[in-house]
Structure formats: structure tokens, C-alpha cells
Amino acid sequence: xxxxxxxxxxxxxxxxxxxxxxxxxxxxxxxxxxxxxxxxxxxxxxxxxxxxxxxxxxxxxxxxxxxxxxxxxxxxxxxxxxxxxxxxxxxxxxxxxxxxxxxxxxxxxxxxxxxxxxxxxxxxxxxxxxxxxxxxxxxxxxxxxxxxxxxxxxxxxxxxxxxxxxxxxxxxxxxxxxxxxxxxxxxxxxxxxxxxxxxxxxxxxxxxxxxxxxxxxxxxxxxxxxxxxxxxxxxxxxxxxxxxxxxxxxxxxxxxxxxxxxxxxxxxxxxxxxxxxxxxxxxxxxx
Length: 287
Prior knowledge:
Distance between the termini: 18 Å
Largest sheet: 7 strands, mixed
Radius of gyration: 18 Å
Strand content: 5-15%
Number of helices: 12
Number of domains: 2
Shape: globular
Number of strands: 7
Helix content: 40-55%
Strand order of the largest sheet: 1-7-6-5-2-3-4
């Protein structure tokens, strides 16, 4: 997915938000914005929105000295999500289609996104979203992908959100499919890292590996050999969230994209409306 002029506006908004979170020094906030402006003036749109945004976070860290401005928020997101997990599991257990409900819960978890800059309340909004229908839903294609001997790689997205991926991972494992879960190899926005995966118990369930970098989504020029091997060996991949969609939607692998469309650019690329829930696959007709 290629960036559009609208994405430049988003870069500046993200830069200011990250700078203010990283420190309370207005002079440093201004320096961040000036450095980002210089970089944006020299760039082009022949890149993904994720790669367009990535340098601003390095700028924030370089100027403020804070390598992980979102650390405390990530921990709090994990805590709140874990408190909701028993009720989500109960709803899935009572469902006539547990796999579909688990997919729904995972999609609802994609509401947790600090890069987009939208307001949300985890405890209130996630349960409510379980009643929101999908605009695109490739579940029947997905069911056929699962079974004994099949290998699935699950590209995780944000802290807190990964808690709502747990029931879907559990449902996939019940089919006999093996799962490898991936997280970022370093802090970037509120994306989940190995620290978060351990905190929520994912590492006790399945192998969890890093992508090899702390890029937004996946920078395929910077991935680790371990990550690339897992992708190459996978029969099917689940990609959570915007950044992963932006950097994987033109890949040849067998990707299913699971997310809430939270910006107009991604919604347009998926041919859905802003706010829609999506479980999309190339074989499934566009909405």
C-alpha cells in the first residue's frame, strides 16, 4: 500500500503526540517538529504509510532521549485487557461458532492503537464491538486453511490488543494447526514486544518470535532470518492491524488481514468505510 498526501498530515500529528508523551519540554517538541518537517520535505510517497511514519519515532527518541515513550501505556493496556479476557472467553465458549466469535474478539482488539490517535475505552468499547458485524469476512476460506499439520504465523500488533488475540490462537490450536506468534524486536509506538507477550501469557502458549526490527508493520529488508524462515514455512498467515496490512498487502504469501479500519486511507484500500471491521483475503470478494 502506497502512502498518500493525507499520510503526511498524519506524520506530523504522530510526531507531536509522541514528543509530548516522551517529555514535557516544549523546546524539544519544537525541535522534533522541525526535524520531521525537514525529513518530510525531502521524501516522497513511493513508500508505505508505515515506512513514512517510522523515522519520526527515531527522531523523538534522539531528541528527547526516551527510547519507549509508550511503555507505561502498554503495560496498562495489557492489564485492562487481561481483566476483560475471562468474559471474552466465556462469550466465545457460549457461541454457536467459537472460531467466528474469536475472530470477532481479535478484530475488536485492534481498536487499541495509539499511532492512529483516536479515542477509545478498552473496557467499554471492546465488548460493544462484538456486536458490530464485519464488512468483509473471509472466515469460510479461513476455516479451510486450518487442520492437523498446517502451520500458521500470526503477526501481532499492539500491546493490550494481543490479549484479544489469545482466544483466536486457542481456537486455531484446537484445529491441530501450529501457531507461531510474532512481535516487534524493539519498542515502536504501542506495538507489542516480547516483554508484552510474556506479560500476557502468550509465550506459555505458542512460540513467540521477533520480526527482527522495531519497524511499524514489517520492513522486509530488515527482518530476521528466524522471522523470514517462519513466514516461508507457513501455510497461512494472519496479519493484525494497519501497519501490518500496509506492509504485507502486496506480498505473495497467503495473508489474511484482520483489523478495524481506523483511517480513511486504509479503509479506501480495503474498499470499506471508516470504522468497519475486516477479515479479508485476496480470494474473498471485495465489499
